[in-house]
Amino acid sequence: MNDQTFRTAMGKFATGVTVVTTKHGEDIHGMTANAFMSVSLNPKLVLISIDEKATMINFINKSNKFAVSILSEDQKDVSAYFAGQDKEARDVEFNWFNDMPTIKDSLANLTCEVYDSVTAGDHTLYIGEVTDISVTEGEPLAFYEGKYRQMSDLNGVV
């Protein structure tokens, strides 16, 4: 099996889209991630997976906390910006939640303290203990076969 076959197979798993943010001092950093999942209800734990080459690693290691914003179907541009696909400079107005920067108008925002981390291959898996949550209504932004999708796009596909 080659790398492309592996990527193609993983692309068959439809996911939601998140932006992970953190701050250290006055420095704020964010990145798009679809490698996110719940781990435990008691205690409330979630997992994010970050590429070892990503600068986010240094920020999380210094701050020992992060936030996750679960994006709505109208936030494709936000995802593209934090994924580095939109190179146009912009001032991002964050929603401050539990003293952490989160993405405004997201379906859910979670703030987390690092509970544990594990290096696995070329990624670090951060398990975060959820310290606060806010939730709103709406439809999620999805990612399937390497493309952004809306739930209506996936009817009959998944």
TrEMBL record:
<feature type="domain" description="Flavin reductase like">
    <location>
        <begin position="10"/>
        <end position="150"/>
    </location>
</feature>
<keyword id="KW-0560">Oxidoreductase</keyword>
<dbReference type="InterPro" id="IPR012349">
    <property type="entry name" value="Split_barrel_FMN-bd"/>
</dbReference>
<dbReference type="GO" id="GO:0010181">
    <property type="term" value="F:FMN binding"/>
</dbReference>
<dbReference type="GO" id="GO:0006208">
    <property type="term" value="P:pyrimidine nucleobase catabolic process"/>
</dbReference>
<dbReference type="Pfam" id="PF01613">
    <property type="entry name" value="Flavin_Reduct"/>
</dbReference>
<dbReference type="InterPro" id="IPR002563">
    <property type="entry name" value="Flavin_Rdtase-like_dom"/>
</dbReference>
<dbReference type="GO" id="GO:0042602">
    <property type="term" value="F:riboflavin reductase (NADPH) activity"/>
</dbReference>
<dbReference type="InterPro" id="IPR050268">
    <property type="entry name" value="NADH-dep_flavin_reductase"/>
</dbReference>
<protein>
    <submittedName>
        <fullName>Flavin reductase</fullName>
    </submittedName>
</protein>
